[in-house]
Amino acid sequence: MPPGLRTVALAIGLAAALAAAGLPAGAAAPLEKIAIAHSTVSGSQVIVQVMKDHGIFERNGLDAQILFIAGGPIVVKSLLTGDVQAAITAGPASILASLGGADVVTVVGLLNTADHTIIARPGINRPEDLRGKMLGVNQIGSADDFAFRYALRRWGIEAERDAQVMALGGQPARYRALQTGQIDATTIQPPLTVSAREAGFVTLAALADLGLEYQGTCVVTTRGLIRAREDTVRRLVKAFVEGIHFMKTRRPETLRSIGAFMKLHDPKALEETYEQYTRLIPRVPYPTPAGVRTILDDLAAKHPKARAARPEDFIESRFVKDLDDAGAIRRLYGQ
């Protein structure tokens, strides 16, 4: 068919589709409203700002309302009450809820490792120097506490037996405690890593470089929503895949979104945040069964159900798999 006739045929087909949907010719399909919560303001969740700033939700037929709800457990509760339809949070919150019988499932794995860096005061230059020292974490049982303990075990150090652990709250509080000598080491994430290096603190390890498989930041929803609005979830997952591609390939625009999301202005901090998360977020964002198993093993001592649980029961990978199998993700990157 000649190009001109093909264009006419496509236009006629579109007009017919619009008419069948009860829409006038030339009208766009209405966007579907969806509320999405994120649990922290950090580089690990900045993708929602990128997607909102650059129309990625809209291109996938979604009118996304982005809500900040501090703390993974509260975000999951909002998901279960129906106040939001999807959420970005760390794996442990959704896995704990599922173990308790909640209808929560992970559909996108944004970080399949831990994004923490262990820093220490000057004079502590090797992991073994942490023996007998005071270590600061957010809360006992939190993601950073788990990451710290994992690293310590890799180095032959057991928390409580070989070192003291103090719960001090978020990164700013822990960093102040390190500055004042209240603790000897802690975990941080970009962009605070820039300030820590410039202040002379010692970087002992980045958890991602230790080979830790861990279901960190992920996109969760409910199986109930999947049953009721499967196409919505499919388009949401596709939007996140496109958001990842945008972050990895559109650096200047992404840097501006990082600055807006995190209220950052320091170019070094912006660049470090960009480099960290575009490196760690995978192109094909499958949730990781091995990362879920890591969390279940950690929970097993306090939650007997975790011992017998199957990692596959906590994730729904088919939406990413469908895009992967169809070659859609490879085509995004020109492959």
Structure description:
With 335 residues, the chain is α/β, with parallel strands linked by helices. Helix content is 46%, strand content 15%. The strands form two sheets. It has a five-stranded mixed beta sheet, sandwiched between helices. The protein has a five-stranded mixed beta sheet with strand order 7-6-8-5-9, with helices on both faces. It has helices spanning 3-20, 47-53, 56-59, 72-80, 91-99, 143-154, 171-179, 192-198, 223-228, 230-249, 251-262, 267-280, 289-299, 305-308, 318-325, 328-332; strands at 32-38, 62-68, 86-90, 105-109, 117-120, 134-137, 164-167, 185-188, 202-206, 217-221. α2 crosses α10. The two termini are 28 Å apart. It contains 16 helices and ten strands. The longest helix is centred in the last third of the chain and has 20 residues, at 230-249. The radius of gyration is 22 Å and the shape is globular.
Structural features:
single chain, 335 residues, alpha/beta, D-Maltodextrin-Binding Protein, domain 2, 2 domains, five-stranded mixed sheet, 10 strands, globular, disordered N terminus
For the sheet with most strands, the description reads: 5 strands, mixed
How many distinct beta strands? 10
Strand content: 5-15%
How much helical structure, as a percent, in the residues?
A: 40-55%
**Morphology:** globular
CATH architecture of the largest domain: 3-Layer(aba) Sandwich
CATH homologous superfamily placement of the largest domain:
Periplasmic binding protein-like II
Q: Report the average pLDDT across residues.
A: 90
Q: Give helix and strand order, one letter per element, not per position.
A: HEHHEHEHEEEHEHEHEEHHHHHHHH
